[in-house]
Amino acid sequence: MGTGIAQAALSSGYGVIVIAHSENGIGVARKRIESGFEKAIASKAITAEQRDKYLKNLQISVDYKTLENSELVIEAVSEVRKVKESVLKRIEAHVGNNTVIATNTSSIPISILSNSLSVKGRFIGMHFFNPVPVMRVVEVINGNTTSQETIERSKRFAISMDKTPVAVNDSPGFIANRLLMLFINEAATALDEGVSTKEGIDTIVKLGLHHPMGPFELADFIGIDVCNDIMLEIYKDKRDVRFKPSRTIAKLVREGKLGRKSMEGFYKY
Ligand code: CAA
User: Which fold, 176-262?
Assistant: First the structure.
């Protein structure tokens, strides 16, 4: 998700610094961004010259000090509260008081994450969708301490990236994942009950409901672990069993079958 956001921001003319979690991660991030640009070139959305120009504005580092002059920083690490809180603290320690700090959390309430920061008014949720360069909406989530100025700056940033910002009040899973996770979980429960095969369910959703991907293809695309974490985050708050990950989802996570990224999830790749 982080590299997708970086690619989209570069394509909108921004200078982008990506913080990788390790020296190895630097090469991985660059490759992902370059391959995203290859797709954009293949579909004639950009030219090779534009790609070269955008890549000149990209810096990838493991050093948080490089963030010191940033106008806006978007945290996009794993969907685990402790991990996010520790990264947010590190970001805050290195940027100025006027920098907007956004989290690309998929489900964790902004007002909970804001507890890890000392200057809270400039903290906000900006939830992007995968693949970021293609998907046209951003959920802009205000926590109970987010300032109006931060909301306006975040919306302007989303618009400048040719995305539609939609204001959402703070609630676990916000809107998109509250709906999507119920959908994926119910599909997995129907699979567990033997109502149809995964191929059958995906085909019905694609051809009958006109979704670009079936629920299992989409879960593999998002990451089964990410879906599981989001469901648990919403379940923790709502205590609604419909959000409790289905048997198959829990089993896939235990077995490390996390979707496309691990070459196997509901399907083999
Ligand atoms: N950069 C630029 N363009 C890209 C790209 C990238 N990284 N990735 C794909 N594209 C472009 C392709 O070049 C192609 O462009 P053209 O149509 O102009 O040729 C277009 O996107 C479609 O891509 P493909 O032809 O490769 O493949 P496809 O037609 O099968 O579409 C898909 C792929 C866009 C992913 C489509 O299947 C889709 O929309 N799937 C649903 C995705 C979705 O629901 N995302 C939200 C997930 S939820 C989430 O992200 C939030 C969360 O918190 C979990």
Answer: N-(1-d-carboxylethyl)-l-norvaline Dehydrogenase; domain 2 (1.10.1040)
